[in-house]
Fold this sequence. Notes:
mainly alpha, 2 domains
Amino acid sequence: LIEEVSRYRDPSPERQKALNRFLIVVQNLPGIYKSSHVDYLEALNRTWEWVIRNLYQFEPSSTSVEKSLVTWINGYLRWRIRDLYISDSNYPKISTNQPIGNSEEDSRTLEDRLPDPKPCLSKLDDYIEAIQTAERQRLSQGILAEIKNDPDGKLIGCHPRNYPECNCQLLAIRLLVQEPPQRIADIAREFKANQQTLYSHWKKKCLPKLQDIGKTFGHQP
């Protein structure tokens, strides 16, 4: 699979398909480092981005390509996870379950006052459709080319766990680029993925990456 990826020019549709197949296999390899940190998936996604960008530098050992690949990946992943814990130690811990009112009568906690982060599933498609029109109108040709080519692999390497096909590149193309655009629900059914998972990934991971791409072209959100 590594040789297949290297065989195609970057960027190209053939290379992207080969990368998808590679990621599906490599993410199921035994020995990939795990962590209980709440942001572990963020570190893992950044690791896959790094793997895509630096795959050409991987030098397998003569004994086992699989083991040397896992060791190579874990070396970067452990470093990303270490950064997560270092970041945590720089900030005070805030409990969302402690009362924040100034009187005994007001026993509401911070958690009580936080908005519900999970909107009703029946409203997700309406919400997506509302932002699709606005986002599509603001995308320049340069941004569209960046999304389709994804030269750094940042979009194709960012996806929900166990759903590498539903990466940010595919979601951006399906939701913002193609005409007519698809709905999150349709994509979830096609790939047998959880609709809420895709929605959350799109909102929390993909949209910020698209905004970063826009900034490189002088676009201000």
